[in-house]
C-alpha cells in the first residue's frame, strides 16, 4: 500500500481461511486490506464431451460479481486467472476430466485481480490438486509522480496513471502472467516486475504461515 522507491515493500494486511465451504472439493477466502474474495474448486469430475481434452484436465474459471451479471471485465479476469492456474497445475495427471474454479467477489477495495489469484491458489492447495509450483498475485500502481505503489487501494488505483498485476510462481519467482492498463515506460514496467517479485516472497511466506497454523490446530 506504500510507495516503493526503495526495497522496503509494504503490503496491506492479509487474511485467509481454507475449507470453509462444505460443497466444493477445496475452498478459501482471501482478504487484502478491505478487498475480499471467496474461492471454491470442484473436481476432478466428469467433463462434457464437447469440452473434453484427451491429454489433460479442462479448467473452467467463473468469476461472480457482487451484484448483477458478469461483464467484459470479469471475462478478462477469468482469462488471466485461468492462464495462471494452467501454468501451475499438473493437468496432465487428470486427462479427460473437468476442474471448475468459482471466484465470488465479496468486497473490492483495489488490487482485485491479485486477490483473485491468491484466493485461487489457496483453494487449489486446499483441494489437494497437483501443482508444479504455487503462485501469487501482486498489483502495482504508478502514480502521476512516477512512484510505484504495491497492493494499491481503490482510491490509489483511481489516482494512478498505470496499473499492473503480475502472477509470480514460487520456485524461481518468474512472472507467469501479466495484466496491464494505462501508460508506462519499459523502465517502469521492469521496476514493477522487480518490486512484484520481491513482494511475492512476503505473500508466499504468508501462505506457509497460514497452512502451518491450520495443520498445527489439527495435530
Outline the structure in words.
The protein is an alpha+beta fold and 219 residues long. It has one domain (14-215): Ribosomal Protein S5, domain 2, CATH 3.30.230. 32% of the residues lie in helices and 31% in strands. The chain contains four helices and nine strands, in the order E-E-E-E-H-E-H-E-E-H-E-E-H. It has a five-stranded mixed β-sheet with strand order 1-2-3-5-4, with helices on one face. Strands 7-6-8-9 form a four-stranded antiparallel β-sheet, with helices on both faces. A hairpin with a 7-residue loop joins strand 1 (14-18) and strand 2. Helix 1 crosses helix 2. It starts with 13 loop residues before the first strand and ends with a helix. Residues 1-7 have low confidence and may be disordered. It is found in: Cytoplasm; Nucleus, Nucleolus. One of its GO terms (molecular function) is RNA binding. InterPro entries: ExoRNase_PH_dom1, ExoRNase_PH_dom2, ExoRNase_PH_dom2_sf, PNPase/RNase_PH_dom_sf, Ribosomal_Su5_D2-typ_SF, RNase_PH.
Explain briefly what this protein structure is.
The chain contains 4 helices and 9 strands; from the N terminus they run ββββαβαββαββα. It has helices at 72-88, 112-126, 154-159, 186-218, and strands at residues 14-18, 26-32, 35-45, 58-64, 98-107, 135-142, 148-150, 162-169, 175-182. The strands form 2 sheets. It has a 5-stranded mixed beta sheet, covered by helices on one side.
